[in-house]
Specification:
Layout: H1 9-15, H2 22-29, H3 33-45, H4 48-55, H5 59-73, E1 78-81, E2 84-87, H6 89-120, E3 122-128, H7 129-134, H8 136-146, E4 151-157, H9 159-167, E5 173-178, E6 185-199, E7 212-213, H10 214-219, E8 223-225, H11 230-239, E9 250-252, H12 255-263, E10 269-272, H13 273-282, E11 286-288, E12 290-291, E13 296-304, H14 311-320
Parallel strand pairs: 3-4, 3-5, 7-12, 8-9
Antiparallel strand pairs: 1-2, 5-13, 6-10, 6-11, 6-13
Helix pairs in contact: 3-4, 3-6, 4-5, 8-14
Length: 323
């Protein structure tokens, strides 16, 4: 018994023609939005010249755009005469379809703007303790005047924690203190701060007639912020040439706790000048002069490597750098 031979795979594949991709059809047959808007303007105004002015191009450019669209679609859309321009029957039909394209584009744009508006209406800030307590409130008040609808959330922690939050996307913008910008982040110096040595009025250092030597500061157990804080980083770097910091007498993750311990007379401390200004003015702490060590530090705004801050984050950054 004979059987019909099966068609070979080679003849099958050679005879089949691939279907054009939908995106390819669209790119070849659908005019761009600028051309569609021009056609709608011609329909509304009855003049190619007036339509050109409405969309902001020259009349020769408008004529060229219409001719290009006619070649693309394969039909004549506009009849030109000394009395003006009018749509052909095909042009009128294409114009009806074109209105749907423009309406869809407007809906698309409105949706994207709504999404961007939701993003731009909130700002997540991470800040080191000193900046969060003593500088950020004033900046945020100014931001609310500039962007009254912005909802701001604040994550406060030490500089190392702030860097992690910015890197993992938990925060849109961070503020840190320290000797350098954290690894993996871009940043800009927005100001400067100085660390000062303080002690309670009854402490022996408060009655010194001569400045404290850097080596004596390094040899003394102090009440300090925890490792990872900007204060601790700067102090570690400043005293490394003098043997490094001694084991802390007490260690806290809160500037307020460090101040309270120092005020109580538990021991001397090193803190931001911003943080102890009120206590020094009130006489609850005494500033102890020190020589041979640099305790000035930079305050930085930081963000992920790449494009800079946008929206309210950019506005807040601008506010920090004024004055």
């Amino acid at each position: 018994m004979s059987t019909d031979p099966a068609p070979s795979s080679s003849s099958s594949s050679s005879s089949a023609s691939p279907l054009p991709a939908a995106s390819s059809l669209l790119s070849h047959r659908v005019p761009d939005l600028a051309a569609v808007e021009l056609l709608l303007a011609v329909a509304k105004l009855g003049s190619l010249g007036r339509a050109a002015r409405e969309v902001g191009i020259s009349q020769p450019a408008a004529s060229a755009r219409i001719r290009s669209m006619e070649r693309q679609l394969g039909v004549t859309l506009v009849e030109r005469s000394p009395r003006g321009s009018r749509l052909t029957e095909a042009g009128a039909l294409v114009t009806d379809w074109a209105r749907r394209i423009v309406e869809a584009a407007e809906a698309f744009d409105a949706g994207v703007r709504a999404l961007r508006g939701r993003r731009d209406s909130r700002l997540r800030v991470a800040a080191s303790m000193t900046i969060a307590e003593y500088l950020l409130p004033g900046w945020l008040v100014a931001l609310q005047s500039q962007r009254p609808g912005t909802a701001v959330s604040l994550l406060a922690g030490n500089s190392a924690a702030v860097a992690r939050q910015v890197l993992d996307g938990t925060a849109d913008l961070g503020f840190v203190e320290g000797v350098a910008a954290p690894e993996g982040l871009d940043g800009v110096v927005i100001g400067h701060d100085r660390l000062v040595v303080v002690a309670a009025p009854g402490h022996v250092w408060a009655r010194r007639r001569h400045p404290l030597d850097a080596s004596e500061l390094a040899d003394t157990s102090l009440i300090l912020r925890e490792e990872g804080s900007g204060t601790r980083q700067v102090l570690d770097a400043a005293l490394v040439a003098h043997g490094g910091l001694s084991t802390p007498l007490l260690e806290f993750s809160s500037t307020t706790a460090v101040k309270a311990a120092a005020v109580s007379g538990a021991g001397p401390s090193v803190l931001s000048e911003l943080a102890v200004r009120e206590e020094i003015a009130a006489g609850r702490l005494v500033r102890v002069p020190v020589e041979g060590v640099r305790l000035r530090r930079d305050l930085r705004a930081v963000w992920p490597v790449g494009p800079g801050p946008v929206g309210p984050a950019r506005d807040l950054l601008g506010l920090t750098r004024r004055g």
